[in-house]
Design a protein that fits this description.
Layout (H helix, E strand, L loop, with lengths): L7 H11 L2 E3 L7 E3 L3 H13 L1 H13 L2 E2 L2 H11 L10 E5 L5 H4 L8 E5 L9 H4 L4 H4 L3 E5 L2 E2 L2 H10 L5 E5 L2 E2 L5 H9 L12 H4 L6 E5 L6 H10 L7 E5 L8 E3 L6
Parallel strand pairs: 3-4, 4-5, 5-6, 6-8, 7-9, 10-11
Antiparallel strand pairs: 1-2, 11-12
Length: 262
């Protein structure tokens, strides 16, 4: 196709605007790329318009890939196996998948930002992979976990600790799911104290920037016992702790406030 008669600098400026960043409403500080599907489609169309446009459009798409579902993640994993574009990836946004294990086995030398939305870490990858300090996580400085599900708070910390150079952590609406009964589930989720194995700092200091931690008690008609236990073993987290419960999976979540917290 014939190249555009407009100056290439102007065309690239328009393409750059597709990839604008905005301040995350969850953290108040974290800059994240817009998730507008039309913007993504527009950049893809630019890669096919002409060679002059293709270079910039492909660069923008590869700089911060957005993978909104499992199918897109599978296609991305196939594309990067032999792609030279690994070196220009600065950030990744993953959403609504439990198939991130294969992605974590890759190495991106300049990956700095990992944003996770609705990832079910309780279904994969195995925690032993995260505890290996994989190269995937070694360069990450910004980690965001929103609406993600873990087996326990300790499992969530395994993801955090995998990022050895982390400087910014944003967490919101984390869910914990388990198959235990009564207070055994509470011990599995939060342990028996604020001490953390392998760290000199207690849990509240490791999560000093946490604004809210919601623990959901599923299939629980009377959440008082479990909530009281969690409240007792995490005194340093009481200012951010929130509880929700439901008696059946088909019902909506209800907030629960301990009498001592009122």
């Amino acid at each position: 196709m014939e190249s555009s008669r407009l100056p290439i600098e102007l065309c690239e400026a328009v393409m750059n605007a597709f990839r604008e960043y905005y301040v995350s409403p969850w953290s108040g500080r974290l800059l994240v790329p817009r998730l507008d599907r039309p913007a993504q489609q527009a950049l893809c169309a630019c890669t096919l318009t002409c060679r002059a446009w293709s270079v910039r459009a492909q660069y923008l798409l590869w700089t911060f890939p957005i993978l909104p579902n499992s199918l897109r993640l599978v296609h991305f994993n196939m594309a990067i196996r032999k792609s030279p574009n690994k070196a220009i990836i600065r950030g990744l946004m993953l959403a609504s998948t439990n198939m991130a294990g294969e992605l974590f086995m890759h190495s991106f030398p300049h990956l700095q930002h990992l944003l996770c939305f609705g990832i079910r870490f309780n279904r994969g990858p195995p925690l032993r992979l995260l505890r290996m300090r994989l190269p995937f996580f070694s360069t990450i400085t910004t980690l965001a976990l929103f609406d993600c599900t873990f087996e326990s708070m300790r499992a969530m910390l395994d993801v955090v600790w995998a990022c050895s150079n982390l400087t910014t952590l944003a967490i919101g609406n984390i869910k914990h799911e388990h198959d235990y009964e009564e207070c055994d589930c509470c011990k599995a989720v939060v342990g028996t104290s604020e001490e953390v194995v392998g760290s000199e700092k207690p849990l509240p200091e490791l999560l000093a920037g946490l604004m809210e931690l919601t623990i959901r008690l599923d299939e629980c008609e009377d959440p008082g016992r479990c909530a009281a236990y969690i409240w007792s073993v995490l005194p340093g987290m009481r200012n951010v702790l929130r509880f929700e419960y439901r008696a059946w999976r088909s019902r909506a979540w209800k907030p629960y406030i301990l009498p001592v917290a009122k």
